[in-house]
Amino acid sequence: MNSCILMAKIVRRPELRYTQDNQTPYAQMLVEFSPNRAEATPANLRAVAWGNLASEVAQNYNEGDRVILEGRLSMQTIDRPEGFKEKRAELVISHLYHLDGSVSSGEMAAPTPEKVVPINTHKSNKTEVEKPVAPVSTGDFEYDASYELSNPSAWQPSDTSVEENLDDIPF
User: Per residue in 51-69, pLDDT tens?
Assistant: First the structure.
């Protein structure tokens, strides 16, 4: 399956264009993502969004924005004026997520103590049902306030054993 998720920085503002039949919008931009090693240079990749996503990308994203791109990798063959063909990778975007300025390339935003929920604050599994103050009537049915809820009993298999005849094959 061809699926890529990249965290990158937009280095060229998204350009909104239309196909030759002037029907389908597409937005293309250049993104840069950090390499695995510190001594390597950042890599650039062309990213393309189609349809309604293209319009959204062109309106809401600018050069310098940090984003998470989700999509598929595609190879494009380009005829060069020097007489040879060049293959370039491009990412066809299916989802695009905006990161705020607090996230740097080397670290994801760490949870702060005020955002952490203590583990022992979970809700109880017991369902508490309040009894209504007055009888509730819904058409022909009248609610009985004296009715007590009971826990359903778990199903238990019967104790009777069944003799198996392995030679008898049912058809």
Answer: 999 999 999 999 999 999 9
Which domains, from first to last, does the chain contain? Answer: 4-100 (2.40.50.140)
CA distances from 140 to 32, 69, 132, 146, 147 (A): 68, 57, 18, 18, 17
pTM over 0.90: no
Question: How far is residue 43 from each of residues 15, 70, 71, 100, measured CA to CA in Å?
Answer: 20, 17, 17, 21
Beta strands in 4-126 (DSSP E): 4-18, 25-33, 43-50, 66-79, 85-99
pLDDT (mean) for 131-135: 58
51, two tokens: 């349809």
